[in-house]
Amino acid sequence: MMTSTHTPSALPSSSATDDVAKLAAAAAAVHAAESAEAEAYERTHVHGVYEAIAPHFSATRYKPWPAVASFLQSRPPGAVGLDVGCGNGKYLGLNPSVYMVGSDRSASLVALANSRGRQLQEQHAQEAKKRIAQGELDATGGTGGESSGAAVATEVVVADGLSLPFRERAADFVICIAVIHHMSTRTRRQEAIRHLLRCVRTGEAGHPGGQILVYVWALEQGNSRRGWDEGGEQDLLVPWVLKSQQKQPKQPKQRKGQKGTQDQDTSGVAASNTSGEAPPPPAETTAGPTAATTADGDQGHTDPVFKRYYHLYRKGELEEDVLAAGGAVITSGYERDNWWVVAANEPLSSQSS
Amino acid sequence: MKVLTLNFLTCAVKSCKSSSDSFPLHPKDAELASDDVEVNPQLLINLLPRLDWKALKTTSTELGFPQLPDSPPTIEDLQSDEKLLKDLHSLLMETNLMEGKLVCGVCGHEYAVREGIPNFLLPSHLV
């Protein structure tokens, strides 16, 4: 169950070199097949996993990344923003003077984000009522402070990052945090960035265009216990141990090339460098409707282990992908095991889509 | 989902995006609910230029609300006319589409809305 059988895609190795059209057709077919394969792969090793671990995952995701928080806080009031891959929606209410819509591929996470947003909204409404009631007594109560935001954190949709339902060129900004590294081919990762760029306004004279903020896991994690670093394998399956008892478990427990850190044997799953060298996605067929559920151990109490696919970005790669997607890099940086980039549409080539 | 959000949503099918008929999506069998949201005049005023007013007018009519004027109010209108501000706030921020469908005017695909959440995942033949 946990063996990673790599099914090589059917490349026209013997190259039927008769005619060009045939080749092109074959290439197209291969491309389609690869893309379908990549999709199926992500369904198992990303979407299925998040559906299964949603509440548990959500409980561990409450702290905003500083670079993301400062990006959001610096948006002007009334700005319209999107959070593609919003997960449990932790960023949606962070700046209450902007209006944000979140999307995620996982219906379970979107439902969590929605109820979280509703709670926030109710809180604000009640506080506002209190303030109004008090304000009538002492007129100095101060209106319109920053705290009187509308808490628009409820707006979420279920959508795929490669088929987004957003009106094009309408948003002032888009954030996409820890999402694109789940796409299993470079083509799809660049395509995902292209979709983000399409959502934001293009610049005009006097008006800067909208910006996107993309955040991905870095290969260079020299300071982390995970042990990944420069020169290592970039396409990985990272286990998520679904601890049934604990409320707030830690990050995925895994160390490259080491034994599982728990009593149950995760070592077989850990760091399953799927494909040998660099190239395409590890095409694994663990399949089955229950996705990557590998409850190991024999009997009694075992915690199921879910394997999520990650592409770890090496230094400079994110910027390359932004350029390939037709974007222009504004700033970029590294923050605790992650690469991030702020980008906009290339001003000149912005008409085509 | 707020009416405001509908103003930023279109069909998820790639080939529909180039057609203006894919926006706005058309509510069908809509069940609405009203939320109590604090009025934030500045937010509304800042949002105004980001709205597609024509689409908002369509949506508002399709949901059975009184017809909106052809052109959006000006910022001065909103600042001076409290009722106008309240009405716009109520439509955009407090009116929620809870159940029903959103229909694309081009491909006719119906996106289900449940508990206020629309689902834009496409069946494989539409991807």
From TrEMBL, chain A:
| Comp. bias intervals (Low complexity) | 284-295
Q: Gene3D superfamilies given for it?
A: Vaccinia Virus protein VP39
One Gene Ontology term, aspect cellular component: cytoplasm
Q: What keywords does the record list, in alphabetical order?
A: Methyltransferase, Transferase
Residue ranges, annotated region (Disordered): 244-303
UniProt xrefs under SUPFAM superfamilies: S-adenosyl-L-methionine-dependent methyltransferases
- The Polar residues compositionally biased stretches are 261-275
Question: Which GO terms label this protein's molecular function in UniProt?
Answer: S-adenosylmethionine-dependent methyltransferase activity; tRNA (5-carboxymethyluridine(34)-5-O)-methyltransferase activity; tRNA binding
Domain spans labelled Methyltransferase type: 82-203
**Single Gene Ontology BP term?**
tRNA wobble uridine modification
Cite the Pfam families for this sequence. Answer: Methyltransf_11
The residues forming the signal peptide are: none
Record-given protein name: S-adenosyl-L-methionine-dependent methyltransferase
Q: Which organism is it from?
A: Apiosordaria backusii
| Lineage summary | Eukaryota, Fungi, Dikarya, Ascomycota, Pezizomycotina
From TrEMBL, chain B:
Keyword field contains Membrane = no
SUPFAM superfamilies named in the record: Trm112p-like (SSF158997)
InterPro entries linked to this entry: Trm112 (IPR039127), Trm112-like (IPR005651)
What GO molecular functions are on record for this protein?
protein heterodimerization activity
Q: Does the keyword Iron apply?
A: no
> One of this protein's Pfam families, by short name?
Trm112p
User: Which cellular components does GO assign to this protein?
Assistant: cytoplasm; nucleus
What domain of life is recorded for the organism?
A: Eukaryota
Keywords attached to this entry = Cytoplasm, Nucleus
Q: Which GO terms describe its biological process?
A: rRNA (guanine-N7)-methylation; tRNA methylation
Q: Which residues form the signal peptide?
A: none
Where is the protein localized? Cytoplasm; Nucleus
Spell out the family assignment given in the record's similarity comment: Belongs to the TRM112 family.
Instruction: Identify this protein by name.
Output: Multifunctional methyltransferase subunit trm112
Top-level taxonomy: Eukaryota, Fungi, Dikarya, Ascomycota, Pezizomycotina
